[in-house]
Amino acid sequence: MVNLELANASTGKRAGAKLVDLGIAWLLQLVPFALGAASLLSLSGSRYPTSADQQALLAATVWYVVGGVLGLALWVFCWAWEAKTGKTPGQAMLGLRTSSLEGFAPGWGAVFVRNLVFGLICLIPFVGIVLALVSNAFDPNSKRQGWHDKAARTFVFDVRAGRDPLTTGGINGPASFAPRPELPAVQEVASPMPVRSPVPVTSAAPVTSAASVTSAAPVTSAPSSVPRADRQHSAALQPDAAVHPDTEVGQTRFSRAVGERSGGADEVVLSFSDGRRVALRGPVLVGRNPAGYEEETVQELLAVDDPGKSVSKTHLAVWSDGSRVWVQDRRSTNGTRIVRGDGGSSPAPAGQPVEVDAGDVVHFGDYFFSVGRSRA
Questions:
Q1: pLDDT for 306-325, tens place per residue?
Q2: How buried is residue 260: exposed, middle or buried, by Cβ count under 10 Å (0-12/13-18/19+)?
Q3: 202: helix, strand or coil
Q4: What confidence tens digit (pLDDT) does each residue in 254-276 have?
Q5: Residue 200 DSSP symbol
Q6: Strands in 174-283 per DSSP E
């Protein structure tokens, strides 16, 4: 079974891969540099160099040049290989890959900046190389990036523990693994959802079966017209922009009755990457340990097991207004992204409802769910 989840490379593996790369360079240059040093040791030490001394100096120079050229050639090879495939010899040995922020090959410029910053850190006497090797341990965002990664805007993934984004469509690649079902068209109607204020979310009841993922067209924010009857209720749900997504806010209230569908209407189903399927019949909050805003009523809190904390405590809300489905990023740390069927993707603006359609895939942190419709 293919593991579709991304796994951040551990500090130990990152350090091990870099030490392997440095070790190969040192071994490659060891022989010519040793021969150069031996030539220098054969000098007579006389104030007036003899012909033998001149030959020894020439030999030492040649060996040092050979060592330098070999080292430079190895560096250019590793630079090109990592830029195009995300691999260095050490990373290939330990199952790691360097990628861009989108999950593709990092490119020449990013790898150059990455190696340059790593080398500059190593110039710090005594502790520089240690700091460079373990700098990702100081990253509060799940130890994802070292200082050189932040400068180059790169990630390092463990492809033995998870998915290789470079060969599976990038960060949003899991969407391409799922079959694309024939889904009924969604009827276009005017939405009562506001652009600026979050609105009640329509929820979900668990359904059994395996996850199916698909994709589908550009992010559309909700229309600004709001019926008078809804204005007061949506204003009560307006989140405080200063509230951090991992902060406890108020006490969640649950709706007792599950909304009924009109006869023959399609049921919206959310298929999550962990295998869960949820029939959307009321507001759903998704996160590591989700909780609603003060006075907000929801149908279900859907907790995601995320040890890496790529998902915020309350990451996003999902609901339906009858014929349309909406997603709202709850000002999460890592954001929410909508992937469409044409391969395009757009971030969901924090705090604003965004319309999603059957076949769209919603990515939040290292997880995702697809939106589908089924007829009861």
A1: 888 889 999 999 998 878 89
A2: exposed
A3: coil
A4: 554 444 444 556 789 999 988 89
A5: P
A6: 205-207, 220-221, 253-254, 266-272, 277-279
